[in-house]
Amino acid sequence: MTSTVHPPVSESPSGVPEFPMERAAGCPFDPPPTATAKQKEAPLARVRLWDGSTPWLVTRYAEQRALLADPRVSADITRPGYPNGAPLPPGGGSISFILMDDPEHARLRRMVTAPFAIKRVQALRPAIQKIVDELIDTMLAGPKPVDLVDAFALPMPSLVICELLGVPYSDHDFFQDNSKTIINRDTEPERRVAAMQALNTYLDELLAKKLAAPTEDLLSGLAERVRGGELTRQEAAQMGVLLLIAGHETTANMIALGTLALLEHPDQLALLRDNDDPKLVASAVEELLRYLNIVHNGRRRVALEDIEIAGRTVRAGEGLIMANDIANRDPDAFPEPDRLDLTRDARHHIAFGFGIHQCLGQPLARLELQTVYSTLYRRIPTLQLATGIDRIPFKHDGSVYGVYELPITW
Ligand code: HEM
Description:
Blueprint: H1 33-41, E1 44-46, E2 56-58, H2 61-68, E3 73-74, H3 104-110, H4 118-122, H5 125-141, E4 146-147, H6 148-153, H7 155-165, H8 172-183, H9 189-212, H10 218-227, H11 233-263, H12 266-273, H13 278-292, E5 299-303, E6 307-309, E7 312-314, E8 319-322, H14 324-327, H15 362-379, E9 384-385, E10 407-409
Helix pairs in contact: 5-7, 5-15, 7-11, 8-9, 8-11, 9-10, 9-11, 11-15, 13-15
The site of protoporphyrin IX containing FE has 23 residues, from helix 11 and helix 15.
């Protein structure tokens, strides 16, 4: 179990707050109060990073969307001024196209767009429902209390992404452990590099197998492109790593943290459990994505040119952190933003980002979450926490927020 203790937010003598910021004790679903206070003050504020640099924190919804859609901002982590969360590992540490600009980004993203298109993903619905039902059957047949993360939230999206990519699920301990190391904010650079290399080698070996004996999966499709000279083996392996990590960690955290948020809002949980309208379920997914905004490190970019925004000039080479957790609580975009209301129209949230890097896997994530939220609480109507919320270990140290464990009973 990882400690929930986190160092206090410190302010430098100049009054520039450090980033990332700490959430308030007892408010695990709300963004850090310092960030919310900065949003009230101004649309842009300076923050201080671990290396002493002071990029801009973009606090409000409108400015974040404008900047995320602006071709004058770059997602290239190797550019000077990029507000990196940790020292850059040797070789740049790029996790494929998520950290690249167009046209390179578009060239690579295009190669994996089709398997994540809405129609293709919808065809997975029966398979996903079967996975969800079987995991619940196993949980109900086993001892209680049980850790929902271990028994359900993590295996569910892992099984799905393994099937889609063509990765053997039996290797889940290996790839889940390495993914955890990579996305932990406090991992030392050497360990992060080692975990990246381990996953790269693993994916490269899988690609070799797919080259020799292709099957019906996404990695075989990439192997085919390698054979045709469209893609290097290294590019294909890095893409595989990105899809494998992004494909299980995010949804897993939405399942466990979403369940906890619903247990803490029993009226909302009852609404979801006692109503089988697919529209309500879809709306619940969007609202929980908005409210929890689990990818809570901010979308990071660097300005390529001087940009005039909200009466300020962001200079070329200055870092930008689009804190989408507070954008999703901006009262100008969402009335009564701190209220979890599953019936509100929250579809314009930016929990999946915005602009060219907007989440590729969102149709899949939506389908997975809709299936889980419409099944789990109906099949286990008495589902409840098996411990106090004060004993739940939250992922304050993760670049994806959630809980390490969620002991439940029924
Ligand atoms: C609830 C679940 C998920 C959330 C909240 C989420 C969130 C995000 C966010 C915020 C971004 C934008 C990053 C940026 O602008 O810097 C992103 C990008 C991405 N996501 Fe997701 N994601 C989820 C599920 C998934 C799944 C299931 C996949 C499937 C493989 C996936 C694959 C990707 C990829 C490949 C990108 C990079 C897109 C690009 O750079 O063009 N995500 N995601």
